Each structure stands twice: as C-alpha cells, then as structure tokens.
Amino acid sequence: MGGSMNLKNLKNEVLVQNTKNLIKEENRILANVLAHFQEIETRKLYLELGYGSLFLFAVKELGYKEASAQRRIEAMRFLKKTPEARPMVEKGELNLSNLSLLERVSREAQATHAQSVAALNLIQEEQTSVAEVENKLRGYFKLESKKRVVKIEMDEETYQLWLATKAKLGEAKDASAIKKLCESQVERPQKKVRQAATTRTAGVVLRRELLKQAGHQCQYVGQNGRRCENRHFLQADHKVPYFLGGKTVPQNMRVLCQQHNVHAYQKLKEEKIF
Questions:
Q1: Which end of the chain is more exposed for a tag (fewer CB within 10 A), N or C?
Q2: What is the pLDDT of residues 224-272, one digit of tens each?
C-alpha cells in the first residue's frame, strides 16, 4: 500500500517513465516465464509432482486460469522451435496472443522452421487484430479459413419457405444462400434521416458519418500530440457541450472512446465550466 500511496507524489513525467520501465521489465519477465515453462516441460517436472500434463500443472499448481495457461504453453512451444522470436518478446514486439496463434497455425500447417521464421516476420509488418493476424497466417500457409457449423431446426412450413428462398436466390447450397441473403440485408441502402440539431443524442446516420470521418478511432489528442488509438466503446461527443448550448451537428461533434469522453467531462468540471 505504501508504494501505491507514494505514486501520488510523483511528477507526471516520472510516472510515465516509470511505467515505461515497468513495461520493459514485464516483457522480460514474460520471456523468462516462458523459458521456465520450457524447462519444466523438458524435465517433465509436472509428472513428478503428480500432474498428468503441463496444462494441469499450470492451472492447479501455478494458479493460471485455463485460457491463460493454454496461451502460455502454446507460446512456449513456438519459442522452443523458433528461438528467433525470444528477443522480439523481450522488446515487446511480439505479444502472448500472437505467439499462441503462431503456434496453433504453424502446427496445423506442419510448418518447417524456415516457414515459422517467415511467418514470424510476416505478422510484424503491421499491428492488427488477432483475427486479421490469423487470416494473414492462414493465407500464408495456404490453409482453409475456419468454418462454423450451425444447426438450425425448423418446421415443415419454414423449410418449404427456405427452399423457395434458395431457388429465388439461385443458390443450391444453404451456406451460399445464407451469405447472399445476409449481404443483401447488410448492404441495403438506408434512407437518410436528417439529424435534428436540437436533439441531444446523435442518430444512427450522423453517428455512422462521424465514425467514418474518424476512421473508427478515438479522436482525442493528448498534450504530446499523440492521438488515442482506442477503437472500442466509441461515443459521439459534443465539442461544445449540449447543456451549454452546443448543437448536435457534424461541426460540433467528435468521436471519443468512453474513457476520454469521461476525461473530457471531468476536465470541464475542474475548469469550473459549469
């Protein structure tokens, strides 16, 4: 508790620098933890301690949640066969999720060491979501995209309607017909409704336009000139607050993540704007 209380006395620049140092240490610790996992597996130490697998050892003995244990084991096994990845982990250039994904996909593809190294370099070209990384890797290894199995129960009347729908769509396969039907609904042009400037909440059309202009990313820019990269929980916010006479029009609107929206409100309170 004492350490946490002392943080309040730190200057902003010191607090930020300390955090950066801790992140570097966190990356080194992760690489070290994975190295320990590898040695434990090599020694089969978990068997000596009465566990039937490294996974059970990690969950029961080390206290990891199942998903966390699985990710670390997969990451460790990729590092074991591709040691070139370790420096990237230590530098924070390769995270646990991508390491785990690399192991799963390369194992499925029965990749050689050279292919694993190439895949490692491939995902470092740009920072993307886990789903995008997986698609990129599966494309590189020429693996089929994952398919979902969906079971639908329907009565006879609905089934006959579905057969008629497939015939109208010109598709014999259920999956192709469903895809075409869904695309027709998603891409259907929507009638634009003019946003009333006196309405507080941004409507669907205005919100969509704001998100598009913002590139689906928070528009908050810090004092250091760095723009927030958050793309989740985005909200339409008034530059001039609505309760201070600000109108709900594009010129007075911006996109903020939930955290920065609250932050902006708190700053107004601190500045005693209201």
A1: N
A2: 777 888 888 889 999 988 888 889 899 999 999 887 888 888 888 877 6
Query: Which residues contact residue 66 at a Cβ distance below 8 angstroms, ignoring those fewer than 6 apart?
Result: 55, 59
- The reported pTM is 0.61
Q: Cα separation of 240 and 247, whole Å? A: 8
Contact assessment for residue 86 and residue 118, using Cβ atoms and an 8 Å cutoff: no
pLDDT of residue 265: 84
CB environment 149-165: b (16+ within 10 A), e (fewer): eeeeeeeeeeeeebeee
Angle between helices 96-108 and 113-122 (to 10 degrees): 140
DSSP state of 8: G
* pLDDT single digits (tens) 122-149: 876 555 677 888 888 888 888 876 666 7
Q: List Cα–Cα distances, 197 to 8, 64, 125, 237, 248, in angstroms.
A: 43, 52, 43, 14, 5
Nearest 5°: CA angle at 154, between 148 and 155? Answer: 165
Residue 248 token pair: 């709900």
* C-alpha gyration radius of the chain: 26
The DSSP code sequence of 162-212 is: HHHHHHHHT--SHHHHHHHHHHHHHT------PPPTT-SS--HHHHHHHHH
Choose among 188, 199, 27: nearest CA to 35: 27
- Contact between 86 and 31 under an 8 Å Cβ cutoff? The reply is yes
Render pLDDT for 15-39 as a digit per residue (tens, 0 to 9): 999 999 999 999 999 999 999 999 9
